[in-house]
Amino acid sequence: MRSFIHSHFLNKQLLQIVITSLIMLSLLYTYPVKAAKNNDNENAQQLHRAKLSDVQKAIAEQESNIFDTNKQRSSLEQQLKNDDLAIAKVTKAINKIELDLRNTQQEINKLAAEKTQLTIAKQKQETLLAQQLRSAYTTGQHDYLKLLLNQDQSEKIQRTISYYQYLNQARIKEIDKFKVIIEQLSNVTIEHQNQIEHLNQLKVEQLQQDAEFRASKNQRKTTLQQLSNQLLSSQQQLNKLKAEENNLNQALNKLAAILQAEIDLTGLSKLKRKLSWPVKGNILHSFGTNKQGYLKWKGVLIGAPLSRQVQTIHNGTVIFSDWLKGYGLLTVIDHGSGYMSLYAHNQTLLKSVGDRVETGEPIALVGQSGGLDQSGLYFEIRHRGKVLNPKLWCK
C-alpha cells in the first residue's frame, strides 16, 4: 500500500513535471511564432509604406509633368502668336509693296506715254521752225533793207514791215513753245528714270520680304508640329476650345460695354439674304454643327487660298483688330444697332481699330493664324451677343 502510494506520488510529480515542461515548451514555441508574425506585419507595413511613397512620388512626378507640359504648351502658344504676328507684318509689307509696284508701273507707263507725246510735239516744232528759217533765208534780209531805203512806196513799205514783224512774232512764239516742250520732256525723262529706279528698289525689297516670309512660315510650321506632338485628350481638347470660346465672348462683351452707337450705322436687320459672303470659298464647317463634345460651331469656316482678300459684309467701324488665342488674327466690325461681324484666322489685318469701312472693302487677307491646320476664314454674325446663322444673311 505504501509502495503504491509512493509510486502514485512519484507518477503525479512526474506528470506535473511533464505538464510543466510541455507548458514551457509551448511557451518557448509560441513566442517565436508571435515574433515572426510581428516581424511579418512590420515588413508588410514597411512594404505598404514604400508602395504608398512610390505612388505619391509618381503622382508628384505626373503633376510636375502636367505643369511642365502646360507651361511648355503655353510657351508654344505664345510662340505661335509671335509667328502669326511676324507673318502678318511681312505679308502686310508685301501687300503694300505689290500695291506700290502697280502704282509705280502705272506712273511709268503714264510718263512713257507723255514722253512720247512730247517727243512728237518737239519734232513738229523742229519741223515748223525749220520751215520758217528756210522761208526767211529764201526771202532774204536784203529785200527788207531795200524797202527801207526806197522812199517812193511808203504804204507798201509799211505793209511789208508789218508782215515781217508778224513773221518774227510767230517765230518767237514757236521758239518759246519749243523751249517749254524741251523743258517738259527733260523733266518727264528724269521722273521716268526715277520711277524705274524706284521700281527696281521695290523689287529688291519684295525679294527680301519674300525670304523673311518663308522663314517666318517655316518657324510657324515648326511651332505647330511641336504643339501637335503634345496630344490632348478629348476632355482636354474640349476644355481648350471652351476656354477659347469664353475668351472670345469676354472680349466681345467688353467691346459691347464700351461701344458707343453711331447714328449713321443702321445695323443688318433689313439685309437678310442680301449680303455678300466676305470671301469666296467652300464652307468647311456650317453653323450649328458639332465642333467638339457638346460645343457647336457658332459661325462658319470657309476654305479659301492664302492671301485672298477678305471683304466686310457691310459698312461699319472696326472695334477689334488684333491676335486672340484660338482665333489668330481677328477683326470685329460694328454695324450699329447691336450687330457685329467677326473675321478670324487671317494672315494679316489691313484695318486698325477706329477705321471706318464700306461694304465690300478689303479688311484682311485669308490665312491660317491661331493654329488653323489649313487656310480659311472663320466668320460670325452676332446681334447683342447672340450668334446668328450667316447663311440667313449672306446670299
Automatic annotation (TrEMBL):
Coiled coil: 59-121, 182-262
M23ase beta-sheet core domain sequence ranges: 297-390
InterPro entries, sorted: Cell_wall_metabolism_enzyme, Dup_hybrid_motif, M23ase_b-sheet_dom
Keywords: Coiled coil
UniProt-listed Pfam families: Peptidase_M23
Domain of life of the source: Bacteria
Keyword Coiled coil: yes
Keyword Ubl conjugation: no
PANTHER family, per the entry: MUREIN HYDROLASE ACTIVATOR ENVC (PTHR21666:SF270), PEPTIDASE-RELATED (PTHR21666)
Protein name as it appears in the record: Peptidoglycan DD-metalloendopeptidase family protein
Native species: Colwellia echini
